[in-house]
Automatic annotation (TrEMBL):
Keywords: Coiled coil, Transferase. This is 3-deoxy-D-arabinoheptulosonate-7-phosphate synthase /chorismate mutase. GO terms for biological process: aromatic amino acid family biosynthetic process; chorismate metabolic process. The keyword Transferase applies. It comes from Mesobacillus foraminis. The chain holds residues 95 to 358 of 358 of the full protein. GO terms for molecular function: aldehyde-lyase activity; chorismate mutase activity; transferase activity. The lineage of its organism: Bacteria, Bacillati, Bacillota, Bacilli, Bacillales.
């Protein structure tokens, strides 16, 4: 169902009026984790001031260590919804179990399925049964074929509103947290009719690489880019090495806007 052979024209996902997949370039910014109302609202104000409407923030955090911050859970979803309402923005956040899908539908504009759950088939099926856009991330070690099959799981249940997100894969290379598979973007766009985004934060794990990889993503035809922004990354409860602070965010957006092929 996700195959371009089945449906030649692009699928366009409408998130509160923001169209993803229509040829425009869309951006998702926000903190790694939702930590407090003030923290999310501060980022939302900065993101909105630049003219962007899509805000991210993790409430259920799938952490490698059980001793790391696990997220605020439902409280985090409530904070996101409050900020979305107050700032007229659309919010994206991850859930990690099918039990949370109905709650997520009430609080979120886009439900994220993270890399670690790309093959959580029960979660994929649950996501396929709701009427809400799903942002599906590529698994840590997933081939493109496995990634496409994960999207097929969702669509086979009836939900065709899927955004694919390349977020880097595990390779032997240690210079970056993961290896951004930039060629996945045109391959996914050839093989499927779904919009494709690139998460530059989790793929690189390096603040100094966010701008060049975002430019590369746009240049190669991605429908959007995701990057993490935090008011004070040094004290962030997760991913403090790669989130941008507000000044870096400002510079990031200005640099993108001065790139010839970026239209934002
Ligand atoms: C995230 O976007 O918060 C996240 C955990 O990303 P990934 O699933 O790609 O690691
Ligand atoms: Mn993160």
């Amino acid at each position: 169902l996700v195959s371009r052979k089945k449906k030649p024209e692009n699928t366009i996902i409408d998130v509160k009026g923001v169209k993803i997949g229509d040829g425009s370039q869309q951006f998702v910014f926000g903190p790694c984790s939702v930590e407090s109302y003030e923290q999310v609202a501060t980022v939302a104000a900065a993101v909105k001031a630049k003219g962007f409407k899509l805000l991210r923030g993790g409430a259920y955090k799938p952490r490698t260590s059980p001793y790391d911050f696990q997220g605020l859970g439902l409280e985090g979803l409530k904070i996101l919804k409050r900020v979305a309402d107050e700032y007229d923005m659309a919010v994206i956040s991850e859930i990690v179990t099918p039990n949370d899908i109905e709650t997520a539908v009430d609080y979120l504009d886009v439900i994220q399925i993270g890399a670690r759950n790309m093959q959580n088939f029960e979660l994929l099926k649950a996501a396929g049964a709701v009427n809400k856009p799903i942002l599906l991330k590529r698994g840590l070690s997933a081939t493109i074929e496995e990634f496409i099959n994960a999207a097929e799981y969702i669509m086979s249940q009836g939900n065709g509103q899927i955004i694919l997100c390349e977020r880097g894969i595990r390779t032997y290379e240690k210079a970056t947290r993961n290896t951004l598979d930039i060629s996945a973007v045109p391959i996914l766009k050839q093989e499927t009719h779904l919009p494709v985004m690139v998460d530059v934060t989790h793929s690189t794990g390096r603040r100094d690489l966010l701008l060049p990889t975002a430019k590369a993503a746009i240049a190669i035809g991605a429908d959007g880019v995701m990057a993490e922004v935090h008011p004070d990354p040094a004290v962030a409860l997760s991913d403090n090495a790669q989130q941008m602070d507000l000044k870096q965010f400002d510079e990031f957006v200005s640099s993108l806007r001065s790139s010839a092929f970026v239209q934002i």
